Structure formats: C-alpha cells, structure tokens
Give the backbone structure.
Amino acid sequence: MLGSMKRIGVVIILLLAFFGLADSAYLTQHALSGTPLLCDIQNLTGCNIVAASEYSRIFGIPLAEFGVLFYCIIFVLAALEIIIFDQLLRRVLQAISLVGVIASLYFTLVQVFVIGAFCIYCLASALIALLILILASFIEPIRRRPRPMPEPPPTPPPFSIPSV
C-alpha cells in the first residue's frame, strides 16, 4: 500500500514537472521572440514588467530557460523513478527540487521588494516547484539515523572497609 502511494506521488511529480515545463517554455518563447505575455489574471498584470526587468536574465540567458532545464531534469528523474524505484533517484529529486524552491523564493522576493510587480507565470512556477519538493519529501522521508545509545560506564567495584 505504501509503495503504491509513493508511485502515485511520483506520477503527480511527473505531471507537475510537465506543467512547469509548459509554463517555462511559454516564458522562454516570450523572452526569445519579444512578444508580450498574456497576463491579466486576477489583477496580476505585471508579467511583462517582470519579464522585461534586468532580473529576468542571468549571464544573458533568460531565467525561463533555466526553468525549462529544471523541469526537464525533474521530469526525467520522476520518469526514471517510476521505472527503477531507487532511493538515490529520490534523494537527487529532493535535492534538485530544493534548489528550485530556493531559486523560486529568491526571485519571488525580487518581484515583491525590488521590481514591485508580480508575474503570474513565475508565481505558478514557484508553486509547482514547492509542490514537487513536498511530494519528493513525502515519497522518501528524510529521517535522521538514530544514534546508538552510548554504553554506560563500567560500574566500580563496591567499596568495602577492610576488617581488622
């Protein structure tokens, strides 16, 4: 039963990675073509402001391309996990998803405190990365190894008063 629940978690990660890939691919297409983003969703109309900001590129590469790479890696790892079901794959999946969440948190804070605009696609990607991390932690819980109990010190021999 627990194994099948883990499999379902991996399938959901696979689906989330697909949606994240689609999101990042749309943003990448915009960044490379220069076409405006469609982003009047729930009064979050700052997509084009965020996408045009100096923070939307690292070393001249659009951030969305890093998102495509991130979600491709997550997708491949999840697909391999379905076939192989290996603890190392699950740990790598956790580590990479943690990197994605940290990057998403940083860029979300940049949107809030530096740019002053919100990109719904960026926020969706951040949420997807967070959900992937949560599910990756569910399918392979991080447990601390119990420390072995130290052996008690040897008991000294009983003290006796010599008789005379």
About this structure: The chain has five helices and two strands. The mean pLDDT is 87.
